[in-house]
Design a protein that fits this description.
Number of strands: 17
Mean pLDDT: 91
Helix content: 40-55%
Low-confidence stretches: 1-9
Radius of gyration: 28 Å
Distance between the termini: 89 Å
Bound molecules: N,N,N-trimethyl-histidine
Length: 506
């Protein structure tokens, strides 16, 4: 290809990119819930404001990540080894890459990947003065889609994909998964990933980080409007919008909004967008993650099924039981409904010991239906926890249960309890469908009143139905994981109660 043709091709693809982005922005603003991608925060001014955010006292992520890096860099360097190519996804500023490159053992290459080219070029020049032996090859690309990696004179030993700054938080959890797939592909065989992720913490701490007292985050958020005005020939009036950042506990994310303070219209390209007063544009999600996220569930489930020589299928729910095998624990009603229960598309893993006839019943089920039923007769604390962690549902159909701990462990593991509404079980497990009748989406499990095989069967059927809708199921799991039944929490409630009684008595 001639240079001119190459230039033309490049220009054409840039035009195309512009068209696509313009279409995406307009579609977002025409949607029922208006939204704009957070990638449009970062024009020159936006990038400056973001740097300012990173130095705010309330904005903990940047300095926290920096100090983690400082501390872990020797270990990171030894794990990565010499001659790596650092591929940075979304290289807004190269401060972090500089820190990493300086700590690595003779890195071979640095490949910052960004949609906007200008910033990239500047930074590359800066860096090359500092690291003269490093092959620096910026790539202008949308990193959410596969892209070609540049070649280097010295062949890197391995690729290290670098994604700091908790930018992964901008993606929905599903898209974050897809992005990890792209990274995996770019890392190639033997590659590695170094990623910075902000963790769930006290909501007040999170809220403050996005509502700083100096209003820098507000300016950053509002700046997207000026950016769109310049880039797309729009006439947003930033003075008719205000910044809002709310923490959505159930989704564990910050939602940044621009709220219209008056009813008005905005024109953008050849479209007119109407705003009602108080209507808002969502400009950013910032998802928070935690080590007890659900990613481990599948692993645990596989491991558990494997342990019992049963095959894994994520679409078939696995019900765990850890219990003394006696009537008081509801084994009587299980036995009543056993034929119907075995006809459900469900797998069972049971641990416990007790009355001979219940032990015999489960032994024979496991023998007749080895793909459906796994049984361990006896006591085994480790296996008990594995069952609580690896099952999708945890069954406790007790006739009575003053407190009960297993349902609380299950909630923490994202394993949805199915319980008889009695004592401690009724206090700690709230029925999803029952609350949904009141339009409340805060159920944590499934429960039934009547001590009968029919009630048990019916409730398990309800749970299996909900399990089929992945979003609903995740919501139920998350509700449970967010519950706090620790002594700390109870103690605080007692203190509150004490204060209340004291003030009442005056
Ligand atoms: C760059 C996406 C990590 O979510 O904390 C900072 C962006 N928005 N303040 C974040 C941001 C408002 C930031 N990330």
């Amino acid at each position: 290809m001639s240079i001119l043709a190459a230039k033309r091709a490049n220009l054409a693809s840039q035009d195309e990119m512009f068209e696509q982005e313009q279409a995406e922005i307009i579609a977002g603003l025409q949607a029922r819930q208006k939204w704009v991608s957070p990638k449009y925060f970062y024009d020159q001014r936006g990038s400056e404001l973001f740097d300012e955010i990173c130095n705010l006292p309330e904005y903990y992520p940047t300095r926290t990540e920096r100090s983690i890096m400082e501390q872990a860099l020797p270990e990171i360097a030894s794990r990565v080894g010499p001659g790596a190519a650092v591929i940075e996804f979304g290289a807004g500023s190269n401060v972090k890459a500089r820190q990493l490159l300086a700590g690595l053992d003779s890195p071979a290459a640095y490949v910052p990947v960004e949609i906007s080219g200008e910033y990239l070029q500047e930074q590359a020049v800066e860096l090359s003065a500092e690291f003269p032996d490093l092959s620096i090859k910026p790539v202008v690309a949308d990193f959410t889609k596969p892209f070609d990696l540049p070649r280097h004179a010295r062949m890197p030993v391995r690729n290290l994909v670098f994604f700091p700054g908790s930018t992964i938080g901008n993606f929905s959890r599903t898209d974050a998964g897809k992005l990890l797939e792209v990274m995996k592909a770019e890392a190639r065989r033997g590659g590695a990933l170094l990623i910075g992720v902000d963790l769930v913490k006290e909501p007040d701490v999170i809220r403050a980080a996005y509502n700083d007292s100096r209003g820098v985050t507000a300016a950053f958020n509002l700046n997207v409007l000026s950016h769109l005005n310049k880039a797309l020939d729009a006439d947003f009036r930033p003075d008719l919008f205000r910044h809002e950042a709310v923490y959505d506990r159930s989704h564990r994310r910050i939602e940044m909004r621009l709220v219209a303070t008056a009813t008005h219209t905005v024109s953008i390209a050849d479209q007119v967008i109407e705003f009602d007063r108080d209507e808002f544009i969502i400009t950013e999600y910032s998802h928070k993650y935690s080590v007890d996220d659900l990613g481990g569930k599948i692993k645990n489930k596989k491991f558990l099924l494997d342990h019992f020589n049963m095959s894994f299928n994520n679409d078939v729910p696995l019900v765990g039981i850890v219990s003394r095998m006696v009537a008081q624990k509801g084994f009587d009603i299980f036995a009543q409904a056993v034929n119907e229960l075995m006809n459900l598309n469900v797998k069972w893993i049971v641990l416990g010991s007790g009355d001979d006839h219940y032990e015999a019943l489960f032994r024979s089920l496991a023998h007749k239906l080895p793909e459906k039923v796994g049984v361990y007769i006896g006591y085994n604390n480790e296996l008990a926890h594995l069952i609580e962690a690896g099952s999708d549902m945890f069954l406790m159909p007790s006739l009575y249960e003053p407190c009960g701990l297993n349902q609380i462990y299950s909630l923490k593991y994202g394993t949805v309890p199915i319980v008889k509404k009695t004592g401690g079980l009724a206090d700690t497990v709230h029925d999803w469908d029952e609350l949904m009748n009141f339009k409340l989406q805060n159920g944590t499990g499934f429960s039934f009143e009547h001590h009968s095989g029919q009630a048990l069967l019916h409730t398990i059927r309800r749970a299996v139905n909900r399990f089929e809708d992945k979003d609903t199921w995740e919501k139920i799991q998350q509700n449970g994981m967010n519950k706090n039944y620790s002594w700390q929490h109870s103690a605080e409630q007692y203190v509150e109660l004490y204060k209340l009684t004291k003030t009442k008595r005056g």
